[in-house]
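Check the record.
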Amino acid sequence: MTRSGGRAAGVFLWQRLRGDRGPLIRFLLWAGVESLPAFLAGRAVASAVDQGFLAGEPLVGVAWLAVLALASAVGAFGARGVLLTTAVIVEPLRDTLVTRTVETTLRHALTGSRMQQDRSGVARLTRQVEIVREAAGSLLSVVCRFAFSFVGVCIGTLTLEPTAGLLVFAPVVLGVGCYVVSLRGVVRAQVRSIVATESLAHEAWRLSAGLRDITAYGLEEPALRRVDDAARENAQAEIALARLAALRTLALGVGGWLPLVLVLLWVRWGAGAMSAGAVLGVLTYIAQNLRPAVQALVQGVGTTGIRLFVTLGRLLRDQESQPEEAGRGTALPPPATPRVSAVPDPRTGVGQESAGVAVALDSVSFSYAGGTNEVFSGIGLRVNPGEHIAVVGPSGIGKSTLASLLAGTNSPTHGQIRLDGVSLTTLTPRQQGLIRTYLPQEAYVFTGTLRENLLYLTDGPTDDHLLDHAVEAFGVDRLVSEAGGYDGPLLPSQLSSGERQLIALIRAYLSPARLTVLDEATCHLDPATEARAEGIMRERPGTLVVVAHRISSARAADRVMVLDGGTPRIGSHEHMLAESGLYRDLVGLWSPISTTP
């Protein structure tokens, strides 16, 4: 954590506390009530001994102890109030950080580069925000309790014996002060620990995200090496942080135990006429109140406080960093023909003039982060506007990776992908979403109404007759009836995988996108339903790229692209049967086995 990061965290906390003073004032009042025993403990013990038991007045001694017991009960009631008001203070702090973290993550996702996204935002939201919430409440309680206890002990010992008060005050200031000065090194170690934790989470995510291609290309060793390096750095950071715990032990010894030793030595050789009750009272102040308060402060500041300021500083730094603005990017040139709705109106023919997108891959290479081998190397492809391309190949060869490159969810390590002549990397994700639709194998359906799910990708209101046309075409009338109409509730858990895919297909059909990429988006449908769905998508104006898993998809395409681990081949179905042995093998596997003798 830099100095500016710590200052930003302190300013943020101060603004939050100052913004709503009511809970803070109530907290301080309850903390004062909780600390009442710290003011009375030593005085009550001294009076009970000197004025009661040693003076032959046991009832007086018992009365003073009863006062102390009553003060302890009142202090327990105050502790309850401290706990409740602490929640009132820190929960709004947590809500604010969650809101800002989610907004920042979404803003980066919508405006930043997809290749720069990772899962460290998940760690910030699920772990670091909770660290700030818990640490803020704990540190607030610890600091206030120490302050009230320290003031109470100093006042109490000064009233009993001024010299003893000085013996208590000086070591505490020395021990706590030296520890505070040494916190800079502890802060650096804490920063290293947090960065290492985020790095480990990021590397683990990158490993899981590319697991299939990593396995297919034999990249397990370099991928695991990166995760292992991140895990080792995380372990070393935690070990270095643990070693600094010795500073807490030293500060506790000076501030918590040294006053007790000095008072005992002074009683033995220099106390003079100090009474037995006063000695017991001072020792009670130190052992019962001061030492636990110093211990709680040292441990709280050394662990909770540092974690609070380091974590909060990183959260604020991430939230203040502005990604590329949403409106920035390169606009696509207008299509050759007027672009209207991508869905043809069955009654008016609206949408028939919509043009597809010309797709060009120029010497595109791609490898996952940390990989030594490339999934693709220098491939080229030209897809004409409105053309239908089927991508085939053995499992794990990179078909889904190619689909993700066309969809913009991955970016090539070399080369360029162009849509209508414009590089895909110059378009923001929002601009890409207005041009293309990408359906992965596992369809995304969310809890909401059926209408909301079907119109999720549309850019404006859609008439029910368009919905009726799409629903009838894809054959999901029964699903609409079971949901109680378009405005009925839809629960993803109650849908089959095929039903979810049909909803996603209708969503893509109704979208204004001029490029549709289907990554085995019909794999959970039966052959007849799949053929009908792909036929409807082919009739839809626009460019269509399908990762095929049945021969019917390849036969119906204008051209077939075969991925075999080398240079991709592309041509018509008949041409690929003649030129590609792999394609002939795949067609044989897809074709039904004849039972005719």
